[in-house]
Amino acid sequence: MNPTTLSFPLYRRPGGVVFLDDDRDYLEMLAEVMPPDWYVRLFLRPVACIEFLQQEPPLWEADAWAQQEIVNRWRQGASLIPQILQYWREDGTARFALTQVCVVDYSMPAMSGLRVLSALTGWSGSRILLTGRADEQLAVSAFNRGLINQFIPKQSAEIRLRLTDAIQSLRQFPHARHQPTWRATLTREQHALLCDPAIAQALEHLTRRQGWIEHVVIGSPFGVLALDQKGGVSWLQLEPAENLPELAEMAASQGWDAPTVQDIRAGKRLLDLELQLALGTRQQAQPRQAFAMAGESARLYAALFAVNETFSPGFMRSHERFIATCGERRLQD
Question: Are 14 and 35 in contact (CB under 8 A)?
């Protein structure tokens, strides 16, 4: 089962993919067929690949600490949403360059693929081993020992499709450092809703439909702050059914008419009051059409709100621009 179907990831973003193979033609083929919105680095020499990836652990640590600091300040009273927006603006696109998946050929004359992966101490990304027919038993043993996440025989039919699917699955897997950081902002009840298979699947489908490439789930207020390819920000407000009466009362206190208040009480519309308070705007909260995500034991309502572009990272800090300016796929000799 795809790990993302077990619960909805609390934090996800795109990252780089590294390929190491001593076959120049094979690397050039991979450069051509991998999805164009992936950040791909190509290495012919094991030592160069190891040196490149061994530079990343301090960068991963600094990024993880930046996220942890957001939660620490929240515990002291700071709002989460403006901090996350500031993190995206200040980071620019640096986080997109960090490698999530490394794909290594097992059979190389200078150093075997397993030796390369064993040398990557401290690097916490996912690992795929490409094998020949004679290498498969070694790969099975390495997988069973947890040295690799997957192995794929190079002679497989539809190797491009198999490899792309395997990499994409691992790119979607939440990073172990990020999950507990953002879990701390959720109540037990909120986390249980996200772990409901029906709700998790509905959120995954919504993420794909909206074209979100990065998101953070927070519990205060409860919802998903998300980025698209062009640096635009959306807020998916989440409201458990038991919270609707309170939200309806807030709408009434702000002078909304009786039909609007009744729609909120019935889960037909939601009000972005907490979003506007977090952003510090003087705009009146607005109701938006809501939809239900029915889980096995509870009902969750959601509504989509666009965050004003003045708060967003914008196109110059977007993933689309990062790929356009940094995404050239050159072989590293």
Answer: no
Neighbours of 304 (CB within 10 A): 19
β-pairing verdict for 11-12 and 212-219: antiparallel
Domain 3-56+98-177 CATH class label? alpha beta
Taking alpha carbons only, the member of 117, 126, 130, 125 closest to residue 159 is: 130
| Euclidean distance between CA atoms 181 and 172, whole angstroms | 18
Q: Where in the chain do CATH 3.40.50.2300 domains reside?
A: 3-56+98-177
Burial class, 235, CB count within 10 angstroms (exposed 0-12 / middle 13-18 / buried 19+) = buried
For 167-189, write each residue's pLDDT tens digit.
999 998 888 889 999 999 999 99
Q: Output the average pLDDT for the chain.
A: 92
pLDDT digits (tens, 9 = 90+) for 315-327: 999 999 999 999 9
Residue 17, beta-bridge partner list: 40, 101
Give the residues across from 212 on adjacent strands.
Answer: 228
